[in-house]
Amino acid sequence: MRVEFDDVTVRLGGRDVVQQASLRVEPGSVVGLVGPNGSGKSSLLRTLYRAVRPREGTVRIDGRDVQHLTGRRAARAVAVMLQDPPTDFDLSVEETVLLGRVPHHAAFGRDTSEDLDVVADAMRRAGITDLADRMVATLSGGQRQRVMLARALAQQSPVLVLDEPSNHLDISHQHELMTTVRSLGRTVLAALHDLNLAAQYCDRVVVLDAGRIVAAGPPALVLTPDLIRTTFGVDVRVHGDADEPVFAFRRLTTGDDAVPTHDEPLPESSLPR
Ligand SMILES: Nc1ncnc2c1ncn2[C@@H]1O[C@H](COP(=O)(O)OP(=O)(O)OP(=O)(O)O)[C@@H](O)[C@H]1O
After folding, report:
1. Phi, psi of 108 (to 5 degrees)
2. DSSP string covering 93-124, please?
3. Paired sense of beta strands 187-191 and 30-34, if any
4. For residues 163 and 191, is the Cβ–Cβ distance under 8 A?
């Protein structure tokens, strides 16, 4: 399914935390949202799964305004894996992953054998089969995050939203997660802090700064040292191939040139759309 943000502005706490964001995500592509803390990544994503209503603009899935979908249709279309999974779950891992099937049930419907198969497959993909009977509240942060991935996978929605999905995961599970996500063939929007993960696994990256989309395009074209320095205020050395850059970061030290601003021209490739 195609996802479109058309001139979206989000106002929270009396401030426009997302300003006139326009973005088109093609069906089956993996798009990474990157940007400093507070730049608006989560707020923009929240408009897609209707946790926030844009003050202006429209968010569409396959041409339909998400605000006009029924709750059930919206839940079938978009699954969400949040940044900080809840810790107060009084459910087992398997019961939690089964919650992903709810949008597929008729009212008061029971779990079917198909549900159980989908859940088993989702747990296998998320590497948590051996945790199936554990209570979620007893798991580590990374294990809990993988449970939330499995729940989102079990939802079988064509659009998947991941909000900083890897912040509790060790390095191996970070790569496993992104490999799994890429293999699904679904439309994926992921807020990511790790630019190396974004560069390696995303078809496109979208850079937000102070609520505005300042660049969008293929990672190797967008994530230039200049843009990284401007947006994140760090110096970067680029290793690896031109197609698959690997970044090493260094804090700007006193005496470095002043951090440039986005008023300076950005590479042409980086223009949104
Ligand atoms: N409910 C709210 N009320 C008021 N302000 C909010 C609310 N939620 C978010 N904000 C503000 O909106 C801005 C954007 O926040 P958002 O969470 O979208 O950023 P982010 O890029 O996802 O940040 P991070 O990388 O830290 O997760 C921040 O300044 C934040 O403080």
Report:
1. 60, 20
2. HHHHHHGGGGGGSPTTPPPPHHHHHHHHHHHH
3. parallel
4. yes
- Same domain assignment for residues 59 and 184: yes
Residues 247 and 187 occupy one common structural domain: no
Distance CA 39, CA 33 (A): 10
CA–centroid distance, residue 10 to ligand 1 (Å)? 10
pTM: 0.89
Stretch 71-84: mean pLDDT, rounded?
86
Higher pLDDT among residues 130 and 255, named by residue: 130
Q: Read off the CATH number of the domain in which 40 is found.
A: 3.40.50.300
Contacts of 169 (CB under 8 A, 6+ apart): 142, 145, 146, 177
ipTM summary value? 0.98
With a Cβ cut-off of 6 Å, ligand 1 is lined by: 12-13, 17, 35, 37-43, 191
Burial (Cβ within 10 Å: 0-12, 13-18, ≥19) of residue 177: buried
Q: For residue 130, count CB atoms less than 10 angstroms from its CB and return exposed for 0-12, middle for 13-18, buried for 19 or more.
A: exposed
The residue whose C-alpha atom lies closest to atom 10 belonging to ligand 1 is 12
Per-residue tokens: 257: 């040139």
Q: Supply the residue whose CA is at minimum distance from atom 16 of ligand 1.
A: 40
Whole-number mean pLDDT of the chain? 88
Cα(27) to centroid of ligand 1, in Å? 27
Query: Are 13 and 125 contained in the same domain?
Result: yes
